[in-house]
Amino acid sequence: MEIITSSGNDFFKQVKSYSVSKYRKRDDILLVEGQRIYDEALVRLTPVYTIVSESYLGKHDAAVLEGLPNLRVLTDSLFNSLSELKTSQGILGVFKVPTFDDVDVTSLNRLVVLEGVQDPKNVGAIIRSAHCLGYQAVFLGDGCASPFSPKVIRSSMGSSIYLPTFADDTLAQLRQLKDSGFFLIGTDLSGSEDVLQDMDALCKIAIVIGAEGRGLSSGVLELCDYRFKVSICESAESLNVSVASGIIMHIFNADR
Prior knowledge:
Layout: E1 3-4, H1 10-17, H2 21-27, E2 29-33, H3 35-44, E3 47-53, H4 54-59, H5 62-66, E4 71-74, H6 76-82, E5 91-96, E6 110-115, H7 120-132, E7 137-140, H8 150-155, H9 159-162, E8 165-167, H10 170-179, E9 183-192, E10 205-210, H11 218-223, E11 226-228, H12 241-251
Helix pairs in contact: 7-12
């Protein structure tokens, strides 16, 4: 099997360009690194290339390698130049970005909407919590990190591969959800600490979460049906947005 040894190789240069988001968007692809997330992606997504290091090649037998679609092998030094991990596992997958056109939003009952959450680690952690707590989709509005950036995929522990995500204008998303019968609960420091008494009567709930510091925009807050905040110690300033989101999602979970 040919091993790519030169940084001038056309294939290597193509994959190297995918470290920049505009080239991933151009080719409609995402990158996953590490054995566990790669294996999960292989089940759920359409593979384009599998890239392994020379060391990975030497540790696995022919039967394992034959099951890897469109396999390409790089020297360890070239592979490490692509890796974003401190300790590389020697395997990286290039996959087509999934589409969720077949998801009927009107049939769902627990959603999360993000506005202006830019930090990929926070977006990934929120998607991970939403997936774990049984929420059925995440809507990413203005200013949010892409759910398919490598950092979001890693921070979500692969949940962004499983959970449907939709990116659009926040106000347009919220109007669509209200028209579909969703009750919008906005997170706001001036909101109430009381959980709604008639929670059981609300069949469809969307938790609306803003960026740390800035919070939700005034236009978004005006569309929300209820404003909620998590009670914290008076001497503490605030919770991290992903931590607060997880708490609120748990409180308003249909199976709480």
